[in-house]
Amino acid sequence: MNRSLFMGGIPGTMSRRGFLRACAIATAAMGLPMEMVPKVAEAASDPKRPSVVWLHFQECTGCSESLLRASHPDIATLILDLISLDYHETLMAAAGKQAEEDLEKAIERGNYLLVVEGGIPLKDGGIYCKIAGKKAVDILKHAAEKAVAIIAIGTCAAYGGIQAAKPNPTGAVGVSDIIKDKPIINVPGCPPNPHNFLSTVLYYLTFKKLPPTDKFGRPLFAYGRKIHDHCERRPHFDEGRYVEQFGDVGHRLGFCLYKVGCKGPETYSNCPVIRFNDVEVWPVSVGNGCYGCTEPNFWDTMTPFHKRLPNVKIPGGKGIQASATEIGKAALGVTAAALAIHAGVGIAKRLATGSKSEE
Amino acid sequence: MAVYEKKYVWSILLRLFHWTFAPSIFTLIVTGLYIHWPWTNTWLEGSHQFTMAIMRWIHFIAGMLFTCAVIARLYLWFFGNKYERVWDFLPITGRNIKNLFSTLLYYAYLTDHHEERLGHNALAGTAYFFTILLAIVQFLTGLYLLYPEGSLFTSIGATLFGTQQVARFIHYILNWYFAWFALVHIYIVVWNDIKHPEGLISSIFDGFKFAKKEQ
User: Fold this and answer.
1) B27-37+50-189: which CATH number, 1.10.510.40, 1.10.8.100, 3.30.360.10, 1.20.950.20?
2) Distance (Å, whole) CA A79 – CA B15
3) In this structure, are A189 and A284 located in the same domain?
4) Are A239 and B40 in contact (CB < 8 Å)?
5) pLDDT tens-digit profile of A289-348?
6) For residue B42, which residues of chain A lie inside 8 Å, CB to CB?
7) Is A358 a member of any domain?
């Protein structure tokens, strides 16, 4: 495949045009006016590059991958040019003892931005994730001590992610469950949009503080609005045109994916606006509903992914689940039957003993 | 022959509460189930249909009325007449605890003794109490879903329930509770009205019940 179709340049080199373009996209994503582009560009081209320590814990490196393999290389290049990436296990040349030394040196120098990717297990003293013989939770606490701010990239670092899904065998949690005394910003998603990460970094470099966030610690510029309210299929929702099942006529005509379990109505993210991979796609545009991957505990609350609501655990049953509708209908049916029996008993009693009602 | 006298029990505000609450619940269940699972198909593009938006619009208006009704009932819990106040029917006094058990036995046809009470019996009162609490959860989740961005309700909703999906789930489960409650409530009211000539059903229209006159 001719990758140059989507490439603005060879990674490592960046045109002035590409640089300004990326700054303009990031400025727009942050919800800032265009007058701010020069300021953002200035911050981005500051020769004093901030030191960044990037830690990996329980994760799949998908967040790093999505950042680096963005079809348009300018984002990755810009990020790597913006910052002095002093420690990143999958990217750095150093290995083994040398790598650990780099980390220690970076931590000693202090004044760095800490990026965390992956959940942190706490169960049984946190033994389920170890790097160089040290527990993830200890590495995080140690690295967080001298960090100026922490960015939790991806849903795992933000809220625990897939390893925190029930029954959460390793007791995985997000960064903000452990570190309480540092400014932390969550950039969730599975993976998050690289633009949102870039914008968060640029916001920090431009204003020297983290952007305003919602209740779940997510930057409002990227996670302030619901997917449903910006979705290109929204008119089909309002007018009652739905995909009944994948592959049907409605699906081919691009109708709303609500009935096949799209979680757009309960998920906050700018996916429909900023889209992915510079080729203007996102899940809904290619015919699959949103999975709600930017929401805390989405593996528990958003599954089954192709149903509207999670199943209900039946109390007392051993993991038996049923849909809320089935349970609601069953409860109504049983109650109606019970009431009919009650009425029947009353009538039978009256027939047997004669009318008891007061005169 | 027993002689009955007319007694004023339910104030106008309580009756207004009831007749706002009940139809709004009916409307909310019908439109809510549609919103959960839109069963009509309008596979015509460029037509004038606006089905889901209209259902949602009706649902929101009914939800606002529901919320107002709940607030009115909460007010009456503390400032209503003596039959409407919460301590008249909650099983927190000896009289009410006794009444709770005697009502249970009576409803189960295990005793013929029926305690005369003008207000709610303790069993009904307890059920209404929890229903109002669940109604508060219902309108808070509803307002959270309706105002998803940066309002007071977003803040309350995210704090109490977490994500929108959790709020939606609770909102949907409670929909079935209210359907269940309506069914049981109507049955028991009719059953009581048949058993006793106290004018239970008409009391929610005109406010009067009938009590045996002391002779």
Assistant:
1) 1.20.950.20
2) 65
3) no
4) no
5) 999 999 999 999 998 999 989 888 877 767 778 888 888 999 999 999 999 999 999 889
6) 239-241
7) no
How far is it, in rounded angstroms, from Cα B98 to Cα A12? 82
Write the single-letter amino acid at B101: F
Residues A212 and A241 in one domain: no
In a domain, A34, yes or no: yes
> Pick from A220, A239, A258: which residue ends a domain?
A220
Domain boundaries along the sequence of chain B? 27-37+50-189
Query: Same structural domain for residues A89 and A179?
Result: yes
Neighbours of A74 (CB within 10 A): 24
Give the ipTM. 0.88
Between CA A172 and CA A58 the distance in angstroms is 8
A1-8's contacts with Cβ under 8 Å and 24+ in sequence apart are A3/A71, A6/A71, A6/A72, A6/A277, A6/A278, A6/A279, A7/A71, A7/A72, A7/A73, A8/A72, A8/A73, A8/A74
DSSP codes of every residue in B114-169:
----SS--HHHHHHHHHHHHHHHHHHHHHHHHHS-SSSHHHHHHHHHH-SHHHHHH
- Using the Cβ of B111 and the Cβ atoms of chain A, whether some distance falls under 8 Å is answered with no
Q: Which among A250, A253, A359 has the least Cβ separation from residue B1? A: A359
A123 & A234 share domain = no
Residue A124, exposed/middle/buried by CB under 10 A (0-12, 13-18, 19+)? Answer: exposed
Q: If pLDDT is split at 50, 70 and 90, which confidence band does A275 have?
A: confident
Residue A65 maps to a domain: yes
| Total domain count, chain A | 3
Residue B2: list chain A partners with CB under 8 A: 358-359
Instruction: Please tell me the distance from the alpha carbon of residue A344 to that of residue B6, in angstroms, as a whole number.
Output: 32
Q: Do A358 and B159 touch (CB under 8 A)?
A: no
Give φ, ψ of A355 to 5 degrees.
Answer: -65, 130
Do the Cβ atoms of A179 and A150 come closer than 8 Å? yes
* Domain range enclosing A336: 324-353
The beta-carbon neighbor of A345 closest among B2, B109, B112 is: B109
Task: Indicate whether A55 and A186 sit together in one domain.
Answer: yes
pLDDT tens figures, A237-271: 999 999 999 999 999 999 999 999 999 999 999 99
Contact call for B41 and A242, based on CB within 8 A? yes
Q: Are A205 and A238 in a shared domain?
A: no
Pairing of the two strands A312-313 and A321-322: antiparallel
Q: How far is B174 from chain A (nearest CA, A)?
A: 9
Residues 6+ positions from B41 with CB-CB distance below 8 Å: A240, A241, A242, A244
Model confidence pLDDT, tens digit, residues A174-211? 999 999 999 999 999 999 998 898 889 888 888 888 89
